[in-house]
Amino acid sequence: MLVGILPCLILKSIILKSYEDRAVDVQTAQIQNQCTILCDQLAAMGYPGKKAAEAMLPELEQLSSIYNGRVMLIDSQFQIVEDTYDLDEEKTIVSEDVIQCFEGEGTKIYDAKSGYIEVTSPIFAADKESVTGVMLVSVSTTPILDSIEVLDAKAWIAEGIIILTVAVLAIILGAVMVRPFARITSSIEAVNEGYDDNYLHENTYTETRLISEAFNKMLGRLKILDDSRQEFVANVSHELKTPITSMKVLADSLLAQENVPVELYQEFMQDLSEEIEREDKIINDLLSLVKMDKTAASLQVKQENINDLLEKILKRLQPIAAARNIEVVFESFRPVNAEVDGVKLSLAITNLVENAVKYNIDGGWVHVSLNADHKFFYIEVADSGIGIPEESKEHIFERFYRVDKSHSREIGGTGLGLAIARNAVVMHRGAIKVYSQLGEGTTFTVRIPLNYIA
Fold this sequence. Notes:
This protein has helices at 2-44, 50-55, 57-66, 96-102, 142-177, 179-189, 206-256, 262-293, 306-323, 342-358, 405-411, 417-427; strands at residues 69-75, 80-83, 107-111, 116-124, 131-140, 302-305, 327-332, 337-340, 365-372, 376-383, 431-437, 441-449. It is an alpha+beta fold. Strands 2-1-5-4-3 form a 5-stranded antiparallel beta sheet, sandwiched between helices. It is elongated, with a radius of gyration of 50 Å. 23% of the residues are buried. Residues 269-312 form a coiled coil. This is histidine kinase.
C-alpha cells in the first residue's frame, strides 16, 4: 500500500508545484512584455512629463484591469507620477527593485506567501542610454491560487480513488502472495507427525524455494541426529548387554556343575571379574561422554601449565607402554600456559595417547609434541601403530565406532575414547585432525586457543 500511495502523494505535490511555477512564469513574462511596450510608448511621447503620463493613463488602467493589478509610474526623483489606484501619487517610493531598475535592469518578484507578482521595467530616454523613469506593476496571483485549489481538490479525489484501489489490490495480492508461506508453515507444523523424505517443495518464489531448500537441509540434519540417537541407544544397549550376557553364561555354567574344582571356580571368577571391569569401563566412558555433551558453561577454565599437564599424563601411561616395550617420547618446543579445563583436556589427551599405545606394535614408539604461537597451542600424538583405513577416517570420532571390532574388544576398547577426545577439544573452541596410513601409523593433531573465549 505504501508503494502505491506514497508515489501518488509525491507526484501530486510535484505536479501542483510545477503548475504554480509555470503559471507564475507565464504571467510574469506577459506582464514584462506589456510593460516593455508601454515603456517604449512613454519614451516616444517624451516621458518624463505629466502630459505623457496622462496620455498613457488609459493603457495603464487597461493593463491594471486585465491582470487585476496596480500600475505606477515613477520618475527619476523616485516620486510616483501616476498610480492606477490613485492612492500614492506624488509620494516618494524607494526600494531595492526600483533602484536596480534605474540602473537599467528590470526586475521580477513572486511572493508566494503574500500572493502577488511585482515587475519593474525601465523607461529609457530617447538616446536609449539613460533611464528617465520606472514602471512598477503589482499583480495578484489569486486566480493562479484559485486554479491550484481546484486542481488540488480534484487531485485529492483522484488520489482517494487510487488509495482505495491500491488498498483493495494490496489486500487481495497480499493474501495471494502469502499463500506459499502459509503452506510452508503448515508443512513445518506437520513435522510434529514425523519425518519424511524431501518434505518441503515450495518453488512459487525465489524466497520460498530458498526457504524450502534450507528447511529440507535442516530436516535432513534432524533425521541424521535422530538416527544417530537411535543408533547410539542401540549401541549402548548392545555394549552393556554383551558383558552381562557373558557373566550370565559363566554363572550358569558354575551353577550347572556339582563339586566344581577350585581351579575351575577361580578361572570362572577371574573371567567374571574381567567382564565386570569391562562393564565398569563402558559405564565410566558413557558418563564422561555425557559430561562432555553438556554446554561449555560446565568447563572449569583456569590457567594451566600444559607442559606439566602432558608430562603427568605420559608418566601415568608409561607402565602400559613399558609392558609392550613401546617407547614414549615427549618433545616440548617452548613453555606453554593456557586457559583450559585441566580435567577435560587431560581426559582427551589420555585417550589419544592410550589409543596410540594400545593400537601400536610391540617395540614401537609414540611421539608426543607441544608447540604454540601467539594465538594457539598445538599437541601432536604420533605412533608407529597399525594405522587407519581411508574409509574409516571420517567415522572414527563417532560413538562406538571401531575400525577393527575384534581387535578392539580384544584390547578392551569401548569405541568412545575418540568421541570423548573430540568433544573435549571442541568445548575448548579447538579442532582435532587425524592423518594416517594403514600399516604405517597414525598422527592426531590438536589445536586449542591459548585464551578461552566463552
